[in-house]
Amino acid sequence: MPPSEFPGNDPINIWQNQATEPFSASLDQLRHKAKQWQTRARLKTLFSIILGLALSSAFARIAITGRDVIPRLGATLLSLWSIYFAYQARRWLWPDRLEPHASASASLQFYRRELERRRDYDQHLWRRTGLTFCLVGLALMVVPGVIKALPTPRLLLNVVPFFVLLAAWFVAFFLIGKRQRAQLQHEIDKQGQLQREIDELRALETDRRP
Amino acid sequence: MSQDSLYKQAADTYGSSLDRLARAYELDPEARRDLLQEIHMHLWRSFAYFDGHCSLRTWVYRVAHNVATGYVIRQRRIRNRLVSVENIEAMAGCDPSELAATEAEALQRLSLLIQRLKPLDRQIIVSYLEGMDASSIADITGLSPANVAMKVHRIKNILRRWFGAGGPHAAE
Fold this sequence. Notes:
By secondary structure, chain A is mainly α. Chain A has one domain. Helices cover about 80% and strands about 0% of the residues of chain A. Helices cover about 70% and strands about 0% of the residues of chain B. Chain B has nine helices and no strands.
């Protein structure tokens, strides 16, 4: 485009002639930063997986060394559930890789898919994390002990903290889950606006075709 | 060519353009340095996958815009206030009526305009200001050249109103 198209202030010249700062980081610094970035992204998911596997080992140990049959069954169930939990975390939360050179429209679709995947996981958290098995396992482990303690109410006091913690966890689980879902939905709506712009442009082009 | 040498070539050739691109997404100097570092980091990582199917320039701009767009998407507070070129084009009486007195003032005015735009339009205007044609911009954004040409036409109209002689609506 000839500069004379903007006879007053030529924005192209102004833009290209602005003072810039040379980028000073070395290749080693970039490598280090890239490694940190990658590690951070993976640590989040690894945490869920490791937690699941650690719980599985702990419950498996109880299942092997325990004395009573029903609590041992409960521990076995919880051990299997922990593996399932780790698998689901890997399946639903481990981020896909976006091709770094993807075009704008492709990258927006990718972001949307990732957000929707997270939202779906959160929406069906009960089923996806197999919480029913977790609660049945816990009940099998705890209830026999509680029944045994019924004749001596003082012993029941020992399990009160456990039930208080369990109740607090349930409340937090639902409240935090609800907030996270709302945030994700908000994010998806905003991203949807960007995507609609691209779709509108494509629709306009289709309309113009003979 | 190795990942390192590709990155070096890209940084040498497009270093200034990347700095300007970061300015289009972030005005605060400190935050802009962080964004620029993030762009360079992702650029270096990306060259592990460079297959030569597109030009080095297209690759560099795609990666840089993707990183910067992600940066804008993460900024929830400002994102709701962004508008499209169509919105700005339709806003009568909002454009400056006089030419900027100095180049610094004109640059500030241009930055102000770019900062108001949504990411996709921002990609197009920045690429246009870098001197690219509709076909190159289409390669970067994934839109068709016809759509890009339509957007560029609107951008030119806005720029004429903001920077052309004769004050607002001079080109219309």
